[in-house]
């Protein structure tokens, strides 16, 4: 026990016993004297302070009474005061050095309690106390708070007392700033700041209060400037101060309005030109999180309109720091939902005022603000081309609607050209503003200047393809430079010297070294604590002045900022910092977005989407200086099985889909107020590198794996499809196979519904669930006015089909329950049109077997019941009779035809993707069954007062829909595959006995069926079918009429004698007439001549073409020997009739040679060669008179015959007919016809390739080289004038050679 405690103990006992008041006073004086002689005051004060915490109430009273003496100088009270203040200051300094030391805080409070007791008893001199406390430049903030709280020295008193100190405000601001990192969340610190805020804003009248207000305001300004400098210049972290619990809201609003004004005008050093170049680096996602937190603190407190008004005030009244203004604007646009619209209105008002008064400052602000918003992405602001077009392109709304304002706009844009990026210049050119009258020249001059600037920047105007190629080339160059850097670092490590190649490059290749090598070497990164080899190499270059100081300083700043940004991707685990990879940072960002979606308001979602946007660009290595602002939207081309998609893109897409699956699995409640899906997919809209990967991944998941997916995966796909229009509005081209099958074109989601698999019950169940999920999302997040687009007819038709399928065949399936829970509006939208018969047939035709639930027999019963008991019954009730069902029959025929032409039924043999699909192996069953249904329906047809048969009308309708010859040929082939199942007479009449209207059937044969002719006749199968149809007609006149009006059919009957002879004989027995008799005689002659050559039946009065066809028929029956004997004996005959026959035969032989793959090709070549050897004059006939056969042969055959003949001639060398007088003229005439045919051909149907044409020219040139003088003279001027300049030149050279 100390002596002091013993004294106190004795005093207490005496007080309890007999001490009078006088004795107590004497004892008190004695104690004080003893203390003053034997104890140090500092020790005494310290002991008193310690005992205050542990002593009883009575002892505390004695202690206080002991130190509460009167103002007698002899007591040493002033000496005691100094010691008390010194002790408090020492404790406060110790607190600063030891950070959060609770014991020291308690000692400070106890020490102040001692001082407070003395002050209360007025034992100390108060002015002296203030002098002692204020001798320091500034007191620690905690001590000020304690003194203020215990009413020893109020904060305002302290500020007023320090008014005369010159550097007090700066020192106190520094003290506050240094305390933020330690005490930013402690209430005492926030109370001090709140008092400062109140002092700086409260209205004062007396002079002292005004001075306190002025100094308080100055302190806060210095503090906030230091905070901004730390955040923006140094890239530091300053914790946010939340005063909402301590300061009244109205006063807090005033404070933050002043803070905005202060920050926006702090350090206004950047010029507009620098702001234009750098503003893309000040977007929200690139700002430090600490800076954005400070910005958001202002934005949360103030209303959006108040924030905008404060910005307006600063922009109108002060010079501003563009970096702070634009970064604050970005944060406001991203974090405040309503702010984007307010800013756009403000921008328009600035443009209106600026253009009317030619105020360039207003225009600069407007364009900088607009571009800053555009840089934030389409989820918060429109793209720059869209914004520029929306503001300036409409005559009714543009602020540059007259000559004066338009001239001002053009002058401003012209002055901006040297500082513009290529993207902005392209936007101005591709989406030009509205041009008032007599102002076109101004726009033309600007566009010319902008294009010149683009040329200087080496940026093409036309689209993103060249830009992407340029980016790709730069990327490859940077990769090569990085390889060079790695090699140089390795050499530096081994030799400790800078490689000579680098030194030489810095001297002799300085543009490359400074412009390309150093930017790659000094790419910002988070620098390690221990310098690595790259850092040492950079330092070595800096020491020998091979890196400019400014560039090196900027590099260090950028690295520091990069380190600050990477703090978002660092976790603290077991006291170790683990830095995340780029993919892990993306996943972390997605996880944070999921948390925000579930727990936070929408503005937090927008912030996280902006951060996700930046992470996606980082992971995909999209260049920082590349801004995706499309001036045009090219169509999206998806090659499903051969897409050029990198593994990185696939991984990123899977991360995104997994994120969406988690969001959907947690049953996030959607409503019209939720905007995060739109924000997310708008962000994805900018990342064009992912579009193909996303669409193809969704496509393959649905089309290939759909029936095996879990419910939450199906829900995710439905969610994605409901929002893809936010990502792209472009037309999509889907190439499902490797280029052999037709492509799909249209809106992506519409194509998904069109191709959605419904082949089996499991696929039907998946598709129905997917559509229900899609409907669920659409109905919850969309308004009814967009249902027609989001629920197109193809969707509604397929949905109704699936709903009917489950309702009829699986009424107990749980999937149906979901449909019953939908709203009336969505049900009405889905069922707005009744499922048409043709659509029902199309969907049923996709069914394949074996099915996992439904047997083929059950399916047949279902189809039969639906056709006859539902659709046919409705049609019969509408028409009054079941016999008049042509509409249903026509629709069924059309669907069968479409399936016949589809690769699903007949996959291309060249397409491995199509051939490998299981659906092709099982589709034919349903196809054949529907043909049987069609046969049954056709049997109900009865002859009526129709112009033509139903089948002829149907074929005519189908052919009208086809345009190209190739498509028509494909269609006719498919038609014949279908109608071959029907009675053949239906081509000509609905009933064999009914009167026939043959105009349309004959027209179809002569115009449409001719596209089947590869050579000069119909194929055998089609010929036999038409002949069978004629044989079934009961009216003899109909047969004669068809044969007379269809000469190509008659010719084909003779050509295919071996197949048609017996049927012709049967028809002749049924309908005796001279025409059939002559045809029968010709076929008999062909049959006899197969073994023994017989003279041509010249006595028959039949068409020459029929007898020529008979000779060709011999060729087809492989009777080549007999044919050659006939040519040898009869071709030299001088009879005109025989000449005509062989002329026709020559024409048919040339037509036969058109089809190179014909099985009779070699025999036809030999026959034609022998025929020309026997009758050389036939070549002249073929060259000049093939047009006589236009009434018989198809046009497509006639067009190809000149080239076929000239190709035949070019392969024959040293033949006798080449010496004939007319040979050269014939060749030139054929050449002329070939040129004419090439000029008339449609480009997509060009039959002559360039290599073949070169061969033709070479052959003609050879003919001139070998031509005799007589042959040259036989060439007329008229013929030469039509052959072209090159032929005329050959002719002149040949004539000159002969002379």
From TrEMBL:
InterPro entries (UniProt xref): FANCA, FANCA_arcN, FANCA_helical, Fanconi_A_N
The superkingdom of the source organism is Eukaryota
Ranges for domain Fanconi anaemia group A protein helical come to 479-559
Please provide, in alphabetical order, the Gene Ontology terms of the cellular component aspect for this entry: Fanconi anaemia nuclear complex
Any Pfam family matching the protein: FANCA_helical
Q: Which residues form the Fanconi anaemia group A protein N-terminal domain?
A: 117-458
Annotated GO biological processes are: interstrand cross-link repair
Domain Fanconi anaemia group A protein arcN subdomain: start-end pairs: 584-802
Protein name, entry field: Fanconi anemia group A protein
What is the native source organism of this protein? Magallana gigas
